[in-house]
Every structure is written in C-alpha cells, then in structure tokens.
Amino acid sequence: MNNNSGFTRTLLVFFQALIDTALYWLSFFIIITFWLSGKYPGAFGFENRAFFTGTMLAVFYFNSLYSFRNWILWDELKAILKSAALILLVIVLYLYSQRFNMSRFILAAGILIFVPLCLIARYAFRRIFFALGILSTNIIILGAGRTGEIFAEKIIEHPFTACKIVGFLDDDETKQGKIIAGFPVLGRLDEFERIFCEYQIDEAAVAISTASRSLLTHILDMVEFHVKQVHYIPDMYMLTTFSASIRDVDGMPVISASQGLLNPLNRFIKCVIDYAGAVTALIIFSPVMIWAAWRIKREDGGPVLFIQDRVGWKVGHFKVYKFRTMYTDADKRTEELFKDPNILADYQKGIKLKHDPRLTKIGAILRKTSIDELPQIFNVLKGEMSLVGPRPLTQRDVDFVYGDYVARKIYTVKPGMTGFWQVSGRSDVDTDIRKEMNLYYIRNWSLWLDIVILIRTVYAVISRKGAY
Q1: How does pLDDT run across 374-406, given as a tens digit for each residue?
Q2: Which residue, of 218, 237, 256, is where some domain finishes?
Q3: What is the pLDDT of residue 2?
Q4: In the 3-class helix/strand/coil scheme, how is 161-204 assigned residue by residue?
Q5: pTM to 2 decimals?
Q6: Range of the domain at 230
Q7: What is the CA radius of gyration of the chain?
Q8: Which residues lie below 8 Å from residue 277, measured CB to CB, with a gap of 6+?
Q9: Number of structural domains in the chain
C-alpha cells in the first residue's frame, strides 16, 4: 500500500476508530462485570450506546486524534486525557437530561480504564504499522549541523513519531558522505529533487540555524510543492518548548513563552500536589522503607540515614535525608579517590563512578533501584523540597561544578526528588546538559510537565538506565 494514498490513510483511521470503540466498550464492560456484578444498567440501551460511541469518536476527531499528528507519546496522552474529560462531561449531562439515575463514579471509572488501554493500543498500532511500512513517514533533514543532529536524535528517542529519517542534506563539503546521528549526509541542498524522487520523501525539516532569509526562501520554494509538510526548527533547544505557542501577528510569526512558576496560583497548586503526593508515597512505600532500614542496620550496624547539608530554594541550606549507601568512612575513601586526577576530573564534569568502591552491598542495590531517595519524602513534607524540580546540590557542586550564578538561577524553585535530567539519562548526563535541563524545566514549568516527569520517573527507575 502506498503510504501517501488517501485510501490508505482513510483505512488506518477506520482501524484506529474501530480499536478505540472496542476498548471504549471493553472499559465499561469491565466496570459492569466487576462493579455491578453483571447487572446491565438501562443507560446502556441501544440509543444511548450509539450516543456514547458517537460522542467519543467526535471528540477524538476534533482533538486531532485521527490525524496521526502527535510525535511524542506524552502529547498523545494529553490529547486523550482532554478528550476523556470532555466525553465524561457530555455523557453526564446527557444522562441527566434523560433522567437516568446512574452513578457518576461508574462512568468516571470506565473512562479512567479506557485512557491507559487506549494509549497502549495506539502505541502498539503505530509501531506495528510502522514496522510494516504503512504508517511510516519518510523525512529528510535539511541541515546537518548541531540542530539537525539533535532533531534526528529526538526522532530516534521517540519511536511514537512513526517517522523514518532518510538522511541529511547540507552544503558543507566536509560533511558530504558522513554519518550523523546514524544517518548519512546524502548530498547538497540543491539535490533535493533527486533525493525526493529516489527516497519518496513525505516531509522535510529545515534545521539550519544560521540560514539567511534568502536561503530559507530558496529552500521553501524548492520543497513546498513536493512534500506534505515542511517543519522549521529554530536553534532554541533547551530554551523554550513546553510553554511556547506560535501566533500570527498580521503575517509575522511570534513565539511566546511564559514562566509558569511566577504565577502564585501555580506555586500553590504545585505545593498542594507535593503534600498530597508525599503523603500518598509515604503510605505506599513505608514497607519498602522499613525493609531498607533493616537491611542497612543488619549489614554493618551503622546509621540508617545519611543526612547531608544541601543547597536548595533561594540557595539556602537544608538537611537532605537519604538511606545510607556508603561505608561509614566514605569521606576518608573519597579523599583517597580524588587523589586520582582522572576521577577528580570526572567528578567536576558531573560524571559518577560506575563501580564506586565506597558503596556497601545493600547500598548498591538501593542506588540501582532509587530506594535510597525515599526518605526525601520527609523533606517534601517539611516544605524543603518538591516532588519534581532540580536536584539539591552540595556546596562542593556549587563551588566547583555549577557556579554560584547558575545555582541562583536554578534554585528560584524548590529542589525535587526527581527532575527533568533524572528521567533523561540520570548519571549518564554530563554537567553542562544537566544545567540546560534544569533551566529548561524552570522556564517551561507546567502542571503537565510535572506529570510527564513523574510518569517517566517510573520508567527510569524500572529501566535503571544511568543508575549507579
């Protein structure tokens, strides 16, 4: 099947809608079976079922969930959640108008079951059809510089995009024939038409941050009538993304970004979520914390907690709590380690030892699983930390790695138990990237960004990538 054909796309939309409808009613079937003991409520008669189904499909359609437009799984989840909330509201109002006395909790539970089922199915749907070459989009990147390379890496990192990068085009002679981010530089910009015919290009991404207006005009004239979409990628990586919006001001594109945490209401909401989340986490993880404390005490009889002075909000100092993972003479061992100039240089770059000789046996396990961080729940309850935010630094980190100026910018917010760079590689991410990620989080904070980071934290802990 031709990936570009309208018939193929229509067929894919039909299959996706069919899957959504099946999962929608499976969710309500689960509720009827386990909550209502199989009793079939009158609200699920034929006419009402048709209305419920039509509402779901219409809301999904108007939220662009059948355009296969979202490139990132989190964007798809956000669209599904918004749609689910609207579907629930419409159904409740409809049943009220029909005078059906049906529990709103049952409806909400059905929708809540539907959301994760729908997201998993959509991810599987894209991956299967992408593997079959049906849903894939061939994309060429114009510009093999750093911006183009980062864009290619992001496409690889997010397989939900269903984009297949063909390669790069660039006028730099030194880059011809080279492999960048795993993809070849196929030629110069003026060879686009040849590459378009040879590789059946669907979309083009312009990633030339230094391009003049005349060059951009030339590129657009060259590609716009060949490809379905042209993407322009400005050199703004780690500056603004989440909070940014593009507006047309009488023909002039304007990128607008807001600093969400300057709003007192947003700070209050974040504070409420921190306390509620910390109390919930304490209840859930208390058995694990008791086990960890017992294992630490049993191994060497030393203190259970490691309490250290850290730099936090407004560059103030506070005591952070962690389960002790190192031997009791770790400070002495650290001095010996830092006599090695290579280890000291790695530390100054923010690189941790992969096989740290200071770790106890149980300490290595606690580090790998991130259980050692759980006592920081008490720091959150004390108001010293947040669930999500930049990690608290030692004064040594501030003096030798980050610098006072950067630290003051980072700690305009409370430090967090987890953060943006922790879910993007953890200890594998060097200091410069950590700084950029922390600043990115502060500039682009939103409630949704915190939710995404918390979800990604679960995956990071399970995968154990960069944990040592």
Answers
A1: 999 999 999 999 999 998 888 888 887 788 888
A2: 237
A3: 42
A4: HCEEEEEEECCCHHHCCCEECCEEEEECHHHHHHHHHHHCCCEE
A5: 0.74
A6: 137-237
A7: 26
A8: 380, 387
A9: 3
